[in-house]
Amino acid sequence: MKVTKYSGELVHYDEQKLINSLRKSGADQAMAETIVKEIESEMYEGISSKRIYKRAYQLLKNISNVHAARYNLRTALLGLGPAGFFFEKFIAKVMKEQGFQTKVSITLNGKCISHEIDVLLLKNDVVSMIECKFHSGQDAKSDVKVPMYILSRFNDLKDKKYDLFSAKRSISKCIIVTNNKFTTDAIQFGECSGLSMLSWDYPQKNGIKDLVDRFRVYPVTCLTTLTKAEKDQLLILDCITIKDLILHPDYLKTIELSHNRTINVLKEANQLTN
């Protein structure tokens, strides 16, 4: 049977790939196989991968909110748009979990022009700049023009010293981050030019999805117990991750959640981080 991908391309349906994605969410083998069997009974030639994903999410949510939240991670990252400003803040949180000091949205004067930097990092006396490329559609990829453009910005900044993190420092490293994927040419050019690349699934076993799971730094947009409007309200309040919510549960009072719903949201949040 053929499945229509987000890009419109027709590919062969891969049962094992669907099972693996469900297992990664925390579902056991029996649970994953039961969900897949239900989905396959409803499938037809040319069914969209989006429809399969949505049905899998619904069935998973009936069993476990936490598994559904993990399964929903890639879509949850899209919820940090459409402009991507919240995605930049989220990436700063991911880096902070790894021991970096961070600054978000800093403007610096380069050798030729001024530049707004999405995220600055400091660790082991090394300052890195992060440039985020946010895509609001799941099929979009960052092509080779992205690292080429960002390399020129980095070159304009790296030879100067700035007042950063309470000292005069230069920027010696550049990292390009996207919520989706890079094309092969983009990765090849970036690596050849000394840029670091981070995407949904790159580097292998150390992409965004891996870092989020490893450090339990899930965005609030993956919570199944909140509506989209409520998630948007939390983002505006600067509550970006589930850990932010656990540390400051009063955010839920601010958005006027009932007592019972607050209990359910915090229960899901704590289960995800544990």
From TrEMBL:
Record flagged with keyword Zinc: no
Pfam family, any one: Mrr_cat
InterPro entries xref list: ATP-cone_dom (IPR005144), Restrct_endonuc-II-like (IPR011335), Restrct_endonuc_IV_Mrr (IPR007560), tRNA_endonuc-like_dom_sf (IPR011856)
Gene Ontology BP term (one): DNA restriction-modification system
Keywords: ATP-binding, Nucleotide-binding
Domain ATP-cone: 1-82
GO terms for MF: ATP binding; DNA binding; endonuclease activity
The keyword ATP-binding is annotated on this UniProt entry: yes
Signal sequence, start to end: none
Protein name as catalogued: ATP cone domain-containing protein
